[in-house]
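Q: I'm writing a short explainer about ROK family transcriptional regulator for a general audience and would like to include a description of its predicted shape. Could you first generate the structure from this sequence?
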Amino acid sequence: MSLSKQSESPFLQGTNLTAVGDYNRSVVLDTIRKAGQISRVEVSHLTGLTSQTVTNMVRKLIDSGLVQEEGTVTVGRGKPRTAIRLNPDGRYAVGIHLEPAKTTVILINLAGHIIDRDLPDLPDDSAQAIAALASTVSLLLGRNGIPGKRMGGIGIAIPGPVDARRGTVLDPPNLSGWRNVRLAHDLELSTGLPVFMEKDVTAACHGQTWAGRGEETGQDFLFMYMGLGIAFGTVRHGHVYQGRTGNVGEMGHIVVDTSGPACWCGQRGCVAVTCDPRSLVKQAEKEGLFPAPTHVQDPRAFNDSADLPFLDEAFKSLCQRAHGGDEVCRDLLLESAGRIGRAVTILTDLWDMDTVVFGGPYWHLLKDIYLNRVAQVLRRRSVLRQVHNFKVLSTTLGGDIAAIGAASAILDHDLTPGPAPGMSGRDRSAI
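A: Of course. Here's the predicted structure. Afterward I'll give you a sentence or two in plain language.
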């Protein structure tokens, strides 16, 4: 089978070599997860493993509580066979989305369903905040009776830049008091659970691949994260690309309006000063759309989070007025959607992608205005418009997508196979 044919299938191939039990176990489990409900015969066919290997692996997965038998499936003309599927209660993970406006902590099961949630108010001091997070995690696990042996760990989604290798928050622009904080290390010490930290847009990509509607997005897509900042992520062959340092997706200095305001980087009309919520509020205020000062800082001079409550209130008001029939407010957002469309066009051309998924904390306020406009710009301006049938979609996971993604990254890391023995990561990327 050629590489191009293999890349069309979401199912990984196992190997019948010796001493590869852990890898094969992960391949079998990943195949069952993606299929939903499947027979052992189908698992053998999709993975290339012998029926005996699959039978042995499935037995072990059932014994460990990760897989269960449920119902029957018909394969060809033969008699119905016993169906196997994930046991949703076989493994749990906690996801934390630490964002400037609010913090979300969720508990999900192996199927990606949210079991419980909390929205803790965190103090500004990072050490006290980590203690509060540990207390919240303990509360969620305790009130849901989750045994320690079924906990995969804690995933954290946080604005960049991050040092993902060391689990350190470097200096996020909207989180005061979080400079050079060893968040993953300190939270692991406080909870006794494994902790994995990644950038919020990368976590959102994990959420979309694990719990989103894969049948619509396919195995290759761009994710556009609409929060206080705007970023993008990339998924290829069902795998989230994280970049060399875990900071993939910075797009704030893509120029989308050559006559736009000056940016601190020396250019004019960057995404960072024309498209994010702070920029849109300041533009609306400049045009007299707010009767009183918003107290929102200019994005070029922004250096702390003191204006966040004002920003959240003003941006929601602007969007509500646009949806309520205020044509001037609507035109302002449509203009911004056009700029985002230009940025998306650049990114889809660079990555040779035809599917774009939008989500993030502020996306629900924008989607009704942005979706069609972005699609129009993309289909009109893309260099690849003659070979791509573009799809522009909204995530089905709502504002929780980064928290879901942070938790699912734990499950994905724990349960999804890495490169097969003897295969490099580069080789695997072609599968």
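A: For your explainer, you could say: The chain has a mean pLDDT of 86.
Q: Perfect, that's easy to follow.
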